[in-house]
Amino acid sequence: MGRVLLVRHTEVALKWSGRCYGCSDVPLSRAGRRQARAIAEQLSTEPVSIVVHSGLMRAAWLAEQIGRLTNAAVRADARWRERDFGTWERRSWDSIWRETGSAMEGLLTAPDRFRPGGGETTQELAERSLAAWNALPQETLVVVVSHGGPIATLRALLAGAPLEHVLQYRVATGSITAIDRGEASRSGPFTP
């Protein structure tokens, strides 16, 4: 079976620092573009067959760089997008906290019911991420350029962890997580 490299997009434009941008289409910062070029260069010698990205510009830009340097096909799959935070989108995390208090803890304490800002539950994010994972080619090296939520959620699912523990599976911007599909298939249940 093949391998999958889950790559989290690099740093977004500074005006979005401290803000909830979820599925909003925000650009990379200058530093983020430099980081993206470095990641593409790092992966340039890998036998990548396809690069899949979320369709959001912060992931697409990096995916295009990787595709260009590896000569791999590049395609978008919206199932790899970040969580939809509903009315929280584009607001500062501080203002959300002032308005809702500890309600945001529902992302972890009630993953099947809590809808941040009326958006997507953690359970829905998990189901979407798992469907995207299952749609990837099986026998090749695939690079997926995605976001913190889908990557953390998928890593938790592949480890057989409950969704309440998803924060333990977070990854930094610009990180690369390699998953051997054969090992992942033996690691536990794939259903959220």
Gross morphology: globular
CATH topology: Rossmann fold
Element pattern in H and E: EHEHEHHHEHEH
Low-confidence stretches: 185-192
Number of helices: 7
Judged by helices, strands and strand pairing, the structural class is alpha/beta
Q: What is the class in the CATH system?
A: Alpha Beta
Mean pLDDT across all residues, rounded? 93
Q: Please outline the major beta sheet.
A: 5 strands, mixed
CATH architecture: 3-Layer(aba) Sandwich
DSSP helix fraction: 25-40%
Defining traits:
192 residues; 5 strands; 36% helix
Helix-strand blueprint:
Layout: E1 3-8, H1 30-43, E2 48-53, H2 57-70, E3 73-76, H3 93-100, H4 106-109, H5 122-134, E4 141-146, H6 148-158, E5 176-180, H7 181-185
Parallel strand pairs: 1-4, 2-3, 2-4
Antiparallel strand pairs: 1-5
Helix pairs in contact: 1-2, 5-6
